[in-house]
Amino acid sequence: MKEKAVVLLSGGLDSTTCLAMADRAGHEIYALTIRYGQRHAAELRAAKRIAKAYRVKRHAVLHIDLAAFGGSALTDRHQMVPKGRSLKAMGRGIPATYVPARNTVFLSLALAWAEALGAGHIYIGVNALDYSGYPDCRPAFIRQFERLSRLATKGGVTGAWRARVHTPLIRLSKAGIIRLGRRLGVDTSITHSCYDPGKGGRPCGRCDSCLLRAKGFKEAGMADPITG
Known about the structure:
The chain is of the alpha/beta class. About 40% of the residues lie in helices and about 10% in strands. It is built from 8 helices and 5 strands. The longest helix has 16 residues, at about 100-115.
């Protein structure tokens, strides 16, 4: 019998590669996508395409309105998504696209589903190198969340169940993730990365996420199937 795994699936390059790794590991996959009040639905459509392509056991899409709190250019349409920033600027400070406590919320939801399923594995595609300054993508955060999961769940307290949080991409560059995806057969043409897409989900090409994606494909010596 396959071991169950909950995979956080945003529809982007990283989460798709993470899902492919869980699939390669032989897990029965339960994909979790969060509609958190982000300014567009393109990544949600991508997540549905990816879940279908991998024939996951179940794909759950939860609706949680983090836009009600504001505090991020990804959820507040009155804030501008930063465009055209240099790589040096991206590596300095925490950007306006940071969504307060987003990965803490996402991992908590994944933990709840994993405990209900009896799944011993949670996968999240966080990355500590090309991470644009997000504090909730760091190894220290993941270690502390895993510790919290043992203290905050029935299974963890009784010792009857425990979930390991897998972050297989955390020390890879974007180019490294793209190369890994190629080895795993990831179809990057069905992924979505842009923070502020245009009509039909076309990437803007200038936000931090688009620029890091372009940098990754260039360094990997590959053409991005979305932008050519």
